[in-house]
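Please annotate the following for my students:
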Amino acid sequence: MNILITGGAGFIGSHLAEKLLEMGHSVSVIDNLSTGEFSNIRHLVKNNNFSYTINSVLNKDVLENLIVKVNQIYHLAAAVGVKYIIDNPLLSLRTNIGGTENVFELANRYKKKVLLASTSEIYGKSNNVPFKEEDDRLLGSTHITRWSYSSAKAIDEFLALAYYREKKLPVVIVRCFNTVGPRQTGQYGMVIPTFVKNALLDHPLTIYGDGKQTRCFADVDDVVDGMIKLMNIKKAEGKIFNIGNDKDISIEELAKKIKKMTNSKSKIEYIKYEDAYEEGFEDMRQRKPDLSKIKKFLDFKPNYNLGKILERIINHFEA
């Protein structure tokens, strides 16, 4: 099968490309390298079944030339990371809405199945934990830039479902919850790679807020495996799935765990959200997925616990 991954040089995209190539598929990726890295896919270039295009999903002509040749599209291209969204609000909105509109318009023209990678940010600051796919959303003011990402990804989901209902285009939507693993960068605010890198260098581990906020972390291999299986199940079409791990940990405990695993001398420091991001910045106290739906469809069960996940990431940074 011929498969296109938008955002294929990104962290998740590159792992997805690897897995699909191992399964014997031909894989094309498009990425503008705004948050992705060519180093993520350099090892794949020698594979005759792999090709890459350095360009943007906003370039409709280039995108069309790729889509017409494939059977399936994994749409992962997006502006991601809290810091990146706040620093690049206009480009983020154009990419996350305009790029997705291009993908679905062209996918519908040539009737190609699409998996849309969405996000746990969809749920906003809801306290109805664990989050279920049909739950209401609770967002903050439009004055707070971070909520633009949640809103843009919600528009992406509305587009996907509209094409499914009106045009009968086969689509699957997955909402990722804190996917982590080797090759992820902390450059745009991702907490685990930032903590691990600083711990190995004995630099301070900086926690935003009081550190009592909790998160669940899923290994990229588990997430990619789930994506591929959902893409190839007919009954998953037109549906939304949480994907991730439902074992939570506070950011404070995470910092202590990483410090212990790396034998680090790092100090743990606390700063206000406003000092790290923007005035009025809001964060969620808890972010935990309800995985009952994906378990029903796939018998989904993450293979990696947090200890194994951190061990893999620490080994990657040490190497």
